[in-house]
Design brief:
The chain is mainly α and 71 residues long. 70% of the residues lie in helices and 0% in strands.
Length: 71
């Protein structure tokens, strides 16, 4: 019984972690930041810390929207 409870707790934490990393990915994309880099950083640190940092640094204004455009 205790083992089942521990497994459920682990799965709940795993799902919550995945959801917050998903939020990090969406926030990074909306701010023209590298999704891969920010998700990897959230694996090394915590997703919550990455969310706070993304909120603090804001949008990347130097990002070129269509960098494959040719004149």
């Amino acid at each position: 019984s205790n083992m089942i409870f521990e497994r459920k707790k682990y799965l709940d934490e795993l799902i919550a972690g995945r959801e917050t990393r998903g939020l990090v990915a969406v926030m990074a994309q909306k701010r023209n930041r590298s999704v891969v880099v920010w998700v990897l950083l959230s694996l090394l640190a915590t997703p919550l810390l990455m969310i706070v940092i993304l909120l603090a640094i804001g949008k990347n204004e130097n990002y070129i929207e269509n960098h494959y455009d040719r004149e």
